[in-house]
Amino acid sequence: MKKHRCNKDADLPPLGVSIGDPAGVGPELCLRLLSDRSVAGICRPRVFGSAAVLAAAAAQCGLEVPADAVSLKEWEDGADPAGPAVIDVSWADAAHLQPGVVSASCGRHAAACIRLAAAAALAGRVRAIVTAPIHKAALSLAGERFAGHTEMLAQLSGAGRVCMMMASEELAVALVTTHVAISEVPALLDSESVAAAIRLLRDALLRMKGREPVICVLSLNPHGGEGGLFGDEERRVIGPAIAAARGSGWRVDGPVPPDTAFLPDRRARYDGYVVMYHDQGLIPFKMLAFESGVNVTLGLPFVRTSPDHGTAFDIAWTGRASPESMVQAALLAVRLGALR
Amino acid sequence: MKKHRCNKDADLPPLGVSIGDPAGVGPELCLRLLSDRSVAGICRPRVFGSAAVLAAAAAQCGLEVPADAVSLKEWEDGADPAGPAVIDVSWADAAHLQPGVVSASCGRHAAACIRLAAAAALAGRVRAIVTAPIHKAALSLAGERFAGHTEMLAQLSGAGRVCMMMASEELAVALVTTHVAISEVPALLDSESVAAAIRLLRDALLRMKGREPVICVLSLNPHGGEGGLFGDEERRVIGPAIAAARGSGWRVDGPVPPDTAFLPDRRARYDGYVVMYHDQGLIPFKMLAFESGVNVTLGLPFVRTSPDHGTAFDIAWTGRASPESMVQAALLAVRLGALR
Predict the structure, then answer these.
(1) A26/B305 Cα distance (integer angstroms)
(2) Is residue B145 located within the same domain as residue B20?
(3) B305 with B221, same domain?
(4) For residues B68 and B59, what is the distance between their CA atoms, to the nearest angstrom?
(5) Measured between CB atoms, which of A229, A231, A258 is closest to B283?
(6) Cα–Cα distance between A116 and A57 in angstroms, integer?
(7) How far, in Å, CA of B326 to CA of A160, rounded?
(8) Quick one: A179 and A60 in the same domain?
(9) How many structural domains does chain A have?
(10) What's the rounded Cα separation, in Å, for the pair B261 and B273?
(11) What domain range includes position A327?
(12) Interface residues on B facing A, Cβ-Cβ cutoff 8 A
């Protein structure tokens, strides 16, 4: 444990971090985050997770454990280390962990750490949270009925409509529907869900850019439905949501045909996009920003970001996982948290 | 009319070109094609269209009319100019043409020229055809019941399954479904349509590359349906088509999740992609190749290509339309025609 830190660290905003599935790349990403200079320069990360797991991952990956650690009990009693810190969430199975293997126990630890990070955010003890990747099957084995972070955090915080945004230097896309079959997308679209995505994206971009953003809303159908020839969601659902947004004085274009919406001259014109389904936004997003993308949940009472990748069980605990997206997630969380 | 041409021109393969909607950018693109050196070096273009329209467009756009012209009657009697040539399809309304305006008369002329080019291909008088853009509304006003070139050419040639491919230096994508509403896509997918797209793409790539190509077949649903969690088309429809293709000894991967399929390392691995719906393929395609993309109809008894854009009524007859895609369409048509 390091005892002597500059006093100025204590002035930096605290950032909550959940360790993710311990059998995945979460532990090593948390270690890299704790020792990252660009992160340390703007916030004090608090990693919620097993200190024993972090120490084992550090040894295995050849990384250092640079942070203070306090027990969960000390944290709950009000301890607040001056610099980067681990909030040690004890986990009985830490010694038996098998990297790259799905297990109920790992799912339980991951879920516990998310709850603790969310509670810290709701209590105002951290300014924002970053969540390392979890494994849906492990969460399900652990008896959690949530499809993922977003649903879990929405329920924990009593949020209304939430919306997934992917953000990078190159592009920001907000998704009206996310992890559902293509066959279910048309029925899930209504003017309210499209309007909510526009509102939440506009709110986030307004804070990020410091000015009224220009938003592009995509059509659902190819060529925008070609005047109703193939599909009427543009006229029936998307158009009215855009009209309402314009009525609020916001700068919103659309419905714009998807295939030409991401050409360079369009991207230069727009600060962000509202897309109707997962791959409509994620195909162009990942082409432009594979390693640096950040997932942001809009609509929660606190800021939450996460890296744009999964648990990567195939390379977990090898030290080979790129920390780029995790670091970008922390930097964006602090930025959005400060603007709130 | 130029009379003296090198004899070697007569050895180059003849390429049929339909003028497209005369009120659009078709006439000026045909003029540019007729005077393009890279095109003239490998084929003898024959533009089916009104010579009066081409002369008027040349005057308006400041372009030259460099080609021989023979009447349709002379062509049908066996005339075959040595170099680039216009096959003059007379059109009573040529003098009243209004650029940028949809009309039944323009639709009729466009359709007549497509029929003549297709007939020339079926008779073996041209090696392949390139079609300049048409306007669907004009075609409809003219009483044509076809949605576009593809449907018209399929019927004219008695073709079985046809498939739209977009090709450029960067990417080749074959579409299982094209201009339909997203809500109709899942029901339109069956193992036969997916298998046909794989077969037609493999056949085209085999000729283009001169070796067995490696093909990536996308999933319909995000994350490939995440093991059936959202959508079962991967297991029910796409998987069996891939298995059948592999059974034929072809190199086919999939179903591959769409969002990461177009990252640089994947594109380096694959010669072409089979995509399930329009924007799944056209979003990445247009991002990588906006001006140089070529549309190829696979499955016809002759080679047919077209530029990757529409009639562009807003800039028609100004001379501002980029000939890049039209020229690439001609070059690819000749290449595919020679390999047939």
Answers:
(1) 50
(2) yes
(3) no
(4) 17
(5) A258
(6) 21
(7) 51
(8) no
(9) 2
(10) 9
(11) 1-159+301-340
(12) 136, 178-186, 220-223, 225-226, 229-231, 233, 258-263, 277-280, 282-287, 290
Q: Where are the beta strands (DSSP E) in A1-43?
A: 14-18
B66 and B176 part of one domain: no
pLDDT, tens digit (0-9, with 9 covering 90-100), for B86-113: 999 999 999 999 999 999 999 999 999 9
Alpha-carbon span A142 to A163, nearest angstrom:
25
Assess whether A317 and A273 both reside in one domain. Answer: no
B230/A184 CB distance under 8 A: yes
SS3 category, A262: coil
My answer on whether A67 and A101 are in the same domain is yes
pLDDT tens profile B310-334: 999 999 999 999 999 999 999 999 9
pLDDT digits (tens, 9 = 90+) for A6-17: 445 778 999 999
* Minimal-distance CA residue of chain B relative to A189: B183
Q: What does the pLDDT average to over A313-336?
A: 95
A63: left (phi over 0), alpha (psi -120 to 50) or beta: beta
CATH of the domain at A204: 3.40.718.10
CA distance B161 to A15: 57
Token pair of B171, please? 């990417």
* CA–CA gap between residue B85 and residue B70 (Å, rounded): 7
Give the pairing type, strands A85-88 and A44-49.
Answer: parallel
Long-range contacts of A151-154 (CB under 8 A, 24+ apart): A152/A111, A152/A114, A153/A114, A153/A118, A153/A297, A153/A300, A153/A304, A154/A297, A154/A299, A154/A300
pLDDT at A319 over 90: yes
Distance in angstroms (rounded) separating the CA atoms of residues B80 and B290? 35
Same domain, A38 and A144: yes
Q: What is the reported pTM?
A: 0.89
Task: Indicate if B6 and B56 belong to the same structural domain.
Answer: yes
pLDDT computed for residue A1 by the predictor: 40
pLDDT > 90? residue A232: yes
Site of tokens 């949809």: B102
Q: From CA B140, how far away is CA B148, in angstroms rounded?
A: 10
